[in-house]
Amino acid sequence: MTSLIRNADIDRRRLLAGGAAATGVLALPMAACAADAPSETVEVQIAEGRLRGVRTGGVDAYKGVPYGASVSGANRFKPARPAAPWSGVFDATKLGTPSLQDPTTVYGKNEPAPGEDCLVLNVWTPAGGGKGRPVMFYSHGGGYTTGSGGSTAQDGSMLAREHDVVVVATNHRLGVLGYLYLGELGGADYAGSGNQGLSDIVLALKWVARNIAAFGGDPGNVTIFGESGGGAKTSCLYAMPSVAPLFARAIIQSGPVVRVSTPEVAARTTRMFLAQLGITPTDWRKVLEVPAPQILAAQKALNAQVKGDSGGWKGIQSLNPGAYGPIVDGGLLPHHPFDPTAPASAADKPLMIGWLDNEAAFFAWTGKDVEAFRLDEAELKTRLSGRFGDKTQALIDAYRSDRPGATPSEVYLAAASYYAMGAGSVLAAERKAVQGQAPVYVYNIAYRSNRRMDGTDIELGSMHASDIPLVFNTVASPDTLAGSRADRFAAARNVSTMWANFARTGRPAAPGQPAWPAYDLKARSTMVLDVACTVVSDRFGAERRAWAKVDPAG
After folding, report:
1. 44 belongs to a structural domain
2. Is 385 a catalytic residue?
3. Spatial distance between the Cα atoms of 374 and 363, rounded to a whole number of angstroms
4. 234-245 in b/e burial notation, b at 16+ Cβ within 10 A?
5. pLDDT digit string (tens) for 157-186?
6. Among 177, 165, 159, which Cα is nearest to 119's?
7. CA angle at 358 for the pair 356 and 359, rounded to the nearest 5°
């Protein structure tokens, strides 16, 4: 049978383990957030040297700024070191190199070809001086294998301009280069391997602590946030005790990670990867000399093999071997992010977490699964029963009671969306709320994009990744995933303002919208974000309870 979950790798257990879809989050190029405006060069002094950036429309942008030294050659698979100081003025007017991947999965304007030495970041800050601004530190989506901090949909100019914040976005190692574990074969020299992609982001946070005041930012008021794979990375950062002093709060967008993998599983993945290259474990050092294109080809081959072996249920990060993503390493990430509890090291740090109403439509679109939008009752049951067996009818009945009049496709996409993103978000929120030390705020984005599935009249609605242009308010172009409806500007204003105010004060709010209560296990207050926002108690409660019976282990 054809299955949206199967084709798009929407697997809740995988998403709880790794938090990201195998499909690249930014599946299409996206237009820049604002029209071209006159520009002039500007300069700033940081600890490592002087930077030259560009001032446009009241925002200073510094791009491709090195925060880490080379991670190629002998430095492959090792934690990165800080970038060395330079003399003269570093040209930070253009985007830097994205991590190794296909060039079709990065979406920056005039972005260089992907490569190994990718430890660069971008900064957007309001022009004209100032200090003490909130800092919004973004990790891009694309799972653990694709994307960059240079995508036009994630341009930080509008956030900086409209909300007087400083925005930072990084490139960091992905895929095998970011997550291959060599601790078993390489010993002490490779302590920390398996999480080098995360350690890159930590290195960038240390750069922020050292340098962000030069851009008007407050190093004591840093909010880490990210979408999909970026939400997964944020989940892990939120749980790292050594990183806790580097940020004040966090936002996890459609990327909840409850559990990650283990060194034992990662060691098996390493052997599988070496086998793809024809390298025996005893000769593992040869992997340091393999050209980057061969590294990428072997990574893709192993990923395809794993998908084939699992019928599409295993994604890029799971609790099983053959995938790439973070591990519990006993050091940087000493325990699972939200299992068995929310992280104690972040107990005093407010959290926002949520997902979109129709996440799964994105994966049907990118998986060319038109049938998912045209199901009848028999096809709905067939699709779900392959995964949930005799519990399928109870699950369908719960959705019918909660959504009277819903079509079979609407039930299916709603179930797939909750299974993929909602369940992990709710579980993380529950465990955070139980701590009782800092609030957790839960949201659903209901704004419906009018983007259509290619060659059809099917509108994709509030799909995965359509929150990116809303958060960054990059909706001026009608070509973003937020669509072309005139009311997209109001929705983006609400969402971006909520995010910026949370970064500023720890409480999300927007003018003219209702107060957003913290989440607790009694009221389960959820902010529904749209052109007009509403607070709903225990939204999708019947569905939540049904899923608890279907999969009580959560």
Report:
1. yes
2. no
3. 15
4. bbbbbbbeebbe
5. 999 999 999 999 999 999 999 999 999 999
6. 177
7. 65
Where residue 175 sits, what CATH number does that domain have?
3.40.50.1820
52: in domain: yes
What are the tens digits of pLDDT across the range 246-304?
999 999 999 999 999 999 999 999 999 999 999 999 999 999 999 999 999 999 999 88
The label of the residue with tokens 């950062």 reads 237
Cβ 496 vs Cβ 159: under 8 Å: yes
Residues 126/55, Cβ–Cβ less than 8 Å: no
* 106-150 per-position pLDDT tens digit: 999 999 999 999 999 999 999 988 999 999 999 999 999 999 999
370 domain-assigned: no
Helix, strand, coil abundance in the chain, percent, nearest 5: 40, 20, 40
User: How many C-beta atoms surround the C-beta of residue 110 within 10 A?
Assistant: 7
- Torsion sign over Cα 201, 205, 206, 207: positive
User: Is residue 130 situated within a structural domain?
Assistant: yes
For residues 396 and 412, give the distance between their C-alpha atoms in angstroms, rounded to a whole number. Answer: 9
Question: Is-contact 446 529, C-beta < 8 A?
Answer: yes
Secondary structure (3-state) at 490: helix
- Parallel, antiparallel or unpaired: strands 166-170 and 217-227: unpaired
Indicate the number of domains in the chain: 1
Quick: pLDDT tens for 442-490. Answer: 999 999 999 999 999 999 999 999 999 999 999 999 999 999 999 999 9
Q: Name the pTM for this structure.
A: 0.94
CA 108 to chain centroid: 17
The domain of 15 spans 1-356+422-443+495-507
pLDDT band, residue 353 (cuts 50/70/90) = very high
Round to whole Å and give the CA distance between 316 and 313. Answer: 10
Q: How far apart are CA 483 and CA 451, in angstroms?
A: 5
Closest by CA position to 321, among listed 278, 280, 270: 270
Dihedral-angle region of residue 261 (phi above 0 means left; psi in -120 to 50 means alpha; beta otherwise): beta
Half-sphere exposure of 487 (CA within 13 A, CB side): 10
- Residue corresponding to tokens 């240079």: 150
Provide φ and ψ at 99, rounded to 5°.
-65, 155
CA 19, CA 315: separation in Å to the nearest integer?
Answer: 10
Kindly name the residue from 99, 148, 157, 228 that is annotated as catalytic: 228
Residue 1: Cβ-neighbour burial (10 angstroms; 0-12, 13-18, 19+): exposed
The model's confidence at residue 192, banded by pLDDT at 50, 70 and 90, is: confident
